[in-house]
Design a protein that fits this description.
Elements lengths: L6 H9 L14 H9 L2 H15 L10 H26 L4 E6 L2 E6 L8 E5 L8 E12 L1 H4 L5 E2 L5 E2 L4 E10 L8 H9 L8 H30 L6 H14 L3 H19 L3 E3 L4 H7 L2 E5 L5 E12 L6 H8 L7 H9 L9 E3 L7 E5 L3 E6 L1 H4 L6 H14 L4 E9 L11 E12 L3 H10 L3 E5 L4 H11 L11 E2 L7 H10 L2 E3 L3 H13 L4 E5 L5 H6 L2 E5 L4 H6 L2 E3 L7 H39 L7 H21 L10 H30 L5 H23 L5 H19 L1 H4 L9 H30 L4
Parallel strand pairs: 9-16, 9-19, 16-18, 17-18, 19-20, 20-21
Antiparallel strand pairs: 1-2, 1-3, 3-7, 4-5, 4-6, 4-7, 8-21, 10-15, 11-12, 12-13, 13-14, 14-15
Helix pairs in contact: 2-4, 3-8, 4-9, 7-8, 7-21, 8-21, 9-21, 9-22, 10-21, 17-18, 21-22, 21-23, 21-24, 22-24, 22-25, 23-24, 23-27, 24-25, 24-27
């Protein structure tokens, strides 16, 4: 054993910054979170209009400003909540390390390891840095977090160990030549840390609308402002500004952005109860759109544990199970020994001598009063292939190994007291081991297959093992170990790789870079890709995928870049996320139709107003009333209601096909009502004419709400009726109608508004019937 570094050498390296300390970022900083949610185009647009209307001194007309605070607050709250959860998870990885310094074994924090430290590792330890092995006594590492390969790797002096690997057997010493940010795991994590926003059709559609609307505002806004200042109906600059703000606010789908955030937020709360952490709001929708799920085998389909699959008898011996239980016992049991003793622990045999397992000989033995029992790799134990029984046992072992299973042999020989392999061994039984498949893997695979989602099992493990596991959990197109592809034979060209991915569903020996390439190849074919994983080797692919899903017990790097974290590591939660996402998409599409109707009729009213040089037909507070009762409040309840419709692309197109014709009808009837008041009652004020317009739009919009609430259920009918009653109260109660919403109510104005609203209802039904007729009529 070396004496390690001296105290002076350690101090020198600490002063030079050559320590194992590394800044692990689990998410965006608080400052980044606040900036991302506050400084948005949407908030800037509404904020400018809010300042303008506040300058007029009309507090009622500034109520729309609460949307800015609410929308930003929801986004900040959710991301901070996710950040805190991830930070707590990251603390679970903090460990202590044994190092040799000045010839003495010391325990230090993982960050206090310095370059060139002599590090001692044993069973159960996690390797804290990279470096060559100096001493190995049966040292075996589980490197699945780094490579995806679940088989333990034997390490001899001179072999390299990497940070993040777990010692599963033996012990040893290594020199920490690469520490901190220079380690293999840290470099992978650093590349994965670049923040990437989840793609969302809902958010993208809303953003596209905002951009188009902003261009329209650049043209219509100055024209409307000029017209309002020139209009004889406005007697002060405050009235002109108020009318302009009313027209512009009505054209912005501010409620849709807020509702989308609220719907995502409630979905996230629901999923949190099922141990699923959603780090980004749009991720709920994203997984609902996924049509390909790439699955890491180890830690996702399997638990990473080895279990005893079965025994294959080779000869008759009543002592087989007792001898197996005795032979598997070890002072430092590895994963194989634990798997066997979990099934066979009782024995009446007594051990007189033992030969411990070593990675060099690949067998261990126990001697009883009458026999020596050897447990180990068939090719190392069954050497005398000239013997028919031995040859037959080797053939059976090879056949089972070809199916992706790990095979050991238990053989019996004459009792001896040295550490040599007995000369004449009789094969007694083959011990077949397998990875423990998660109980939830097969049902989850079945769910995705039924939903038309393609499945790709991608692992760094042996291809035959990957194929066997994929077949066991029911991945379509994989019938056995032979159906898996060795990734070392895959083409580098993405188009050629995509062609292979279209035809195959299980891949082994896949490197971290190949996982990224596979995700990119699938995306190039137009697929929406989800990637699951738990190891550092999965981090880059998780970041590149449309939706990254990390296991809560996985590495900090994967949890940091994933949009979804299954906190309890249970794969069965994914169908819940898909169902929740589909419900959100279907319901928000319904609500979006209501919002865009308002945007369309507001735009048309703005154009008409600017052209005719009259005051804008609605005040901002009246638009707030209409929006809340016919869009905002009911849309919220519609958005959280049950909905099992599967995802169908084309959200924005369907919404516009409904909103444009209905919005045109609403605008036409609204301005007609306003114009008739000015024509038949020349002495009527702007407030009186706006009262009629408000009633018209309320009636037509409530009918539009009833269309979106179909097919009716009791709660939907109750929702529409409640909004109608509240609208009547807001208009007919003087303290509310006049005191808050600036309405000048009279029986004639209310009846006139209802009549014009009824005309609008008839026109909407005619337009919908014509549209449905053309959709049913085939084109030539």
């Amino acid at each position: 054993m070396g004496s390690g570094l001296t105290a002076a050498e350690v101090a020198e390296r600490v002063a030079a910054g050559r320590t194992n300390a590394v800044q692990v970022r689990t998410s965006r900083t608080f400052g980044q979170i606040v900036r991302a949610n506050v400084f948005t185009f949407f908030n800037g647009l509404l904020g400018t209009l809010l300042v303008a209307v506040i300058a007029t001194g009309s507090w009622q007309n500034a109520l729309f400003g609460f949307v800015i605070l609410t929308n930003s607050g929801i986004g900040i709250f959710q991301e901070v909540r996710a950040k805190r959860t991830l930070d707590r998870l990251a603390l679970l990885n903090v460990t202590h390390v044994r190092v040799v310094r000045d010839g003495v074994v010391q325990e230090v924090g993982i960050a206090d390891v310095v370059q060139d430290d002599l590090v001692r590792i044993g069973s159960g330890d996690q390797v804290p840095a990279d470096g060559p092995v100096l001493r190995s006594e049966g040292l075996e590492l589980d490197e699945s977090m780094l490579t995806g390969e679940s088989d333990p790797v034997h390490k001899r002096p001179g072999d390299e160990v990497r940070s993040g690997a777990i010692v599963v057997a033996g012990e040893g010493d290594f020199t920490a030549t690469s520490v901190g940010a220079e380690t293999y795991a840290a470099k992978l994590a650093a590349e994965a840390r670049r923040y990437q926003v989840t793609k969302s059709e809902l958010v993208a559609g809303t953003t596209l609308l905002l951009r188009r609307i902003s261009l329209i505002l650049l043209v219509v806004g100055p024209l409307l402002l000029w017209a309002q200042f020139r209009s004889k109906d406005n007697h002060s600059w405050q009235e002109a500004v108020t009318g302009t703000v009313a027209g512009l606010v009505g054209m912005i789908p501010e409620g849709l952005v807020l509702l989308t955030s609220l719907a995502f937020m409630l979905a996230i709360i629901t999923l949190a109860r099922r141990q699923t952490l959603v780090q980004e709001l749009p991720a709920v929708e994203g997984l609902a759109r996924v049509d390909v799920v790439c699955l890491d085998k180890t830690g996702t389909l399997t638990s990473g544990e080895i279990v005893l699959d079965r025994l294959v008898p080779l000869s008759t011996d009543d002592r087989t199970e007792q001898a197996l239980a005795l032979a598997a016992v070890s002072d430092t049991p590895n994963a194989t020994g634990r798997a066997i003793t979990a099934s066979y622990a009782d024995t009446s045999l007594t051990a007189l001598a033992r030969v411990p397992f070593s990675s060099a000989r690949k067998w261990q033995s126990v001697t009883t009063a009458t026999d020596t029992w050897v447990l180990g790799a068939p090719e190392m134990v069954l050497i005398d292939t000239a013997d028919p029984a031995t040859a037959d046992a080797r053939a059976q072992a090879d056949e089972i190994a070809a199916q992706g299973r790990r095979v050991l042999v238990l053989a019996r020989g004459t009792a001896q007291d040295d550490d040599q392999l007995p000369g004449k061994l009789v094969p007694v039984t083959l011990v077949v081991l397998a990875e423990r498949i998660r109980d939830d893997a097969a049902p989850t695979m079945r769910y995705f297959s039924e939903q038309g989602v393609a499945l790709k099992v991608i692992s760094g493990d042996n291809p035959r093992t990957v194929g066997a596991v994929a077949a066991a959990v029911g991945v379509p197109g994989v019938n056995g170990a032979d159906d898996a592809v060795d990734a070392r034979t895959l083409p580098e060209d993405l188009d050629e790789l995509a062609a292979v991915l279209d035809g195959k569903s299980a891949f082994g020996r896949v490197s971290p870079q190949q996982k990224r390439a596979m995700v990119a190849a699938l995306q190039r074919r137009g697929h929406v890709v989800a990637m699951t994983g738990d190891g550092v080797n999965d981090a880059l692919a998780l970041k590149d995928a449309d939706i990254g899903v990390a296991m809560g017990n996985g590495s900090a790097a994967t949890r940091a870049v994933a949009q979804l974290v299954l906190l309890d590591g249970q794969f069965r939660h994914l169908p819940d996320v898909v169902a929740e996402g589909r419900r959100v998409i279907a319901n928000i599409e319904r609500a979006a139709s209501l919002f865009l109707v308002k945007n369309v009729y507001s735009l048309l009213l703005t154009v008409i107003t600017a052209t005719t040089m009259v005051a804008y037909p609605l005040a901002p507070i009246q638009l707030t009333l209409i929006s809340n009762l016919t869009i905002g409040i009911p849309a919220f309840f519609l958005a959280i209601g049950p909905n099992k419709r599967r995802y169908v692309p084309g959200f924005l197109g369907r919404v516009l096909r409904f909103a444009v014709p209905v919005g045109v009808v609403t605008a036409t009837c609204a301005f007609t009502g306003y114009w008739l008041v000015r024509v038949f009652d020349p002495g009527a004020t702007v407030a009186e004419a706006r009262t009629v317009t408000t009633v018209v739009v309320l009636v037509v919009s409530l009918w539009t709400l009833s269309i979106q609430a179909r097919p009716f259920r009791l709660w939907k009918a109750g929702l529409v009726a409640t909004m109608a009653v509240l609208a009547a109260v807001a208009v007919l109660v003087p303290a509310i109608g006049k005191g808050i919403f600036l309405l000048e109510v009279s029986p004639q104005r209310v009846l006139g508004g209802v009549a014009m609203g009824a005309v609008g209802i008839v026109l909407i039904e005619i337009v919908r019937w014509v549209a449905a007729h053309f959709r049913r009529t085939p084109t030539s």
